[in-house]
Amino acid sequence: MILGFDIGGTKCAVVAAKINEGEIEITAKEKVPTDLKIEPCKMIDRLIALADKICGGEKPESIGISCGGPLDSKKGVILGPPNLIGWNYVPIVDQIREHYGVPVHLQNDANACAVAEWKFGAGSGTQNMVFLTFGTGLGAGLILDGKLYSGTNDNAGEVGHISLEKFGPVGYGKSGSFEGFCSGGGIAQLGYMLALEKSQQGEYPLYYKPGMSKEEITAKTVGDAAEQGDKTALEVYNICGEYLGKGLSILIDILNPERIVIGSIFARSKNLLWQSACEVIKREALEDSAKCCEVVAAELGEHIGDYAAIATALL
Question: Which residues of 16-36 are buried (b: 16+ CB within 10 A; e: fewer)?
């Protein structure tokens, strides 16, 4: 049996699984709200108690922990993620290993999801793969030469920080960044800016009503309008797709992957993004590198957090 801990700012989960000939079977799962009012070690004790419950007396072979960064995977320490206020230098690996006496591995969530898609999802069978989160933000996990590459201090794959334009929607604290153009927050910003422009011309997109605040516009509302054929919403996704193509071209040229797996918004809205992205890749990326790289949607869907924690245990 393999045990996984998925640590989030809103909720945490503990998952048990069995691996048979490369196939994974989730056998049990327990969730609990993340209580940031108590000390992290006490919250971890609460998770260990849940893990003991789902183990039913059976000792796990290994344990994986998936958590948002920053963290130190080598030391097994969480280093104050923005969604885990107060979790500063938390030695989570030591605490869990002392309880179970088995190998325990910690990875940031983007890396963990990359390993999950590599072992169990859309990246299966590859040696060189890039996984892009493309959700609230944009991060990447890199599988290079058949193993996870996390960099010197676990910061490899922070592709959302790449500048694609001097000005543009803000993501990762940077105007015009890859994350600014290609994330849920970025799509909402683009949707709001274009809606204001159109409204001054007497046009009102389906997702916008006069007086709406930017907080009321989301990637989903813009995406729903685009699916209904709204011209402004389609323009938003076309712009997003173009910059996705620019970002992917950089990754293709530098890393020469055989597959790029993209989750969340891309998995749901590939039909709105891929044509414009593909046109840019054909224009921008090295032809031989682009030809051998397949871009696909992630396969693990809403359960990727469970698989990510288990996949980390297998590292």
Answer: bbebeeeebeeebbeeeebee
pLDDT, tens digit, for every residue of 141-175?
999 999 999 999 888 999 999 999 999 999 988 99
Token code pair at residue 248: 């992917």
How many other C-beta atoms are found inside a 10 Å radius of the C-beta of residue 283? 11
End-to-end CA, the chain: 15
Task: Quote the distance between the C-alpha of residue 299 and its chain's center.
Answer: 13
Tokens of 76: 């097994």
CA distance 131 to 116: 10
How many CB atoms sit inside 10 A of residue 293's CB? 22
pTM of the model: 0.88
- How far is 52 from 48, CA to CA, in rounded Å? 6
At 9, the amino acid letter reads: G
Half-sphere exposure of 19 (CA within 13 A, CB side): 18
CB 96 within 8 A of CB 5: yes
pLDDT at 10: 87
Residue 71 burial class via C-beta count within 10 angstroms: exposed 0-12, middle 13-18, buried 19 and up: buried
- Provide the β-strand partners of residue 19: 24
Half-sphere exposure of 265 (CA within 13 A, CB side): 31
Contact 117/304 with Cβ under 8 angstroms? yes
Q: What is the spatial distance between Cα 239 and Cα 272, in angstroms, rounded to a whole number? A: 10
3-class secondary structure, 143: strand
Percent of the chain with pLDDT over 90: 84
Alpha carbon 94 to its chain's center: 26
**H or E, element range at 285:** none
List phi, psi (to 5°) of 53. Answer: -65, -45
